[in-house]
Write a structure and sequence with these properties.
β2, α2 and β3 form a beta-alpha-beta unit. By secondary structure, this protein is α/β, with parallel strands linked by helices. The chain has one domain: Inosine-uridine Nucleoside N-ribohydrolase, Chain A. It starts with a strand and ends in a 6-residue tail after the last strand. Strands 4-3-2-5-6-7-1-8 form an 8-stranded mixed sheet, with helices on both faces. Strands 9-10 form a two-stranded parallel sheet.
Length: 306
Amino acid sequence: MNRFILSFLLSIYSFTIIAQQKVPVKPRILISSDIGGTDPDDNQSFTHLFMYSELFNIEGLVSSPSFGDGNKEEILRMINLYEKDLPKLKKHQKGLLSPDYLRSVTKQGRHGAAPYIGYTTATEGSDWIIKCAKKESKEPLWVLVWGGLEDVAQALHDAPEIQSKIRIVWIGGPNKKWSANSYAYVVENFPNLWFIENNASYYGFFSNNNEPDSVKTTDYYDKYIASAGNLGKDFKNYYKGNVKMGDTPTLLYMMDGNPNDPTRESWGGSFEKMSHSPRVIFNDITSVKDTVAYCTITEFYLKGPL
């Protein structure tokens, strides 16, 4: 697999402020999100997406699982809030996408994790990924995965020819362990898939020092979001208004510079190419000499009594 692993997020950790660079071509994107599941950071990232919808050709909004089910209805609820704010938003920005269009590309994906084989039966969401990928276009379809890989894996299984037409930017981390079966299937069967596995940059948005899974308490909501329309009021419902937006790095990656070059410095991360997948199989009992990288899928094959 042509894989890029996060090296560092310059926009968060560097003391140098880097201006956004123009993206050469408005990208075609499809979002696969576990919105409505156990982690409401996807709601925050959807708000961010809608605020900048003029920057993308959004071809799909697919509800996919992670730890818990995502659901299409929650995407539609966010679109309804956006629709209420749109008259005011249009006064400040041209080209924002219409709510009716966004509803038309919203699809339900799989409920729950895939079985051990990594795929099962087609869903409305996986079929939509295939349909979008097969469109006649000189530009690839960027699939931004905010949850599990189940619908991506299903689409690749049902139409393996699309692997040359799509590019994956995935927020891994905890999503990786909840989607281990689909992840293993994709890695093993699609070695030439263009794939960014981002396991860390989102921590820079919200974590306290030395507490990577914590969410900082800040006054950002009160200063910049409070009372800012219906989406602004809704934002308070997630982490009491504290910013997490753990999936927003995928959007920032597509908004800054040339996304075809993952090694560049960008607001969404800078990545290094890896020749292998961070998935390790041990065929015996491990010792202190055995190590694995952060966010590695680790499997143990041990013989026991029949």
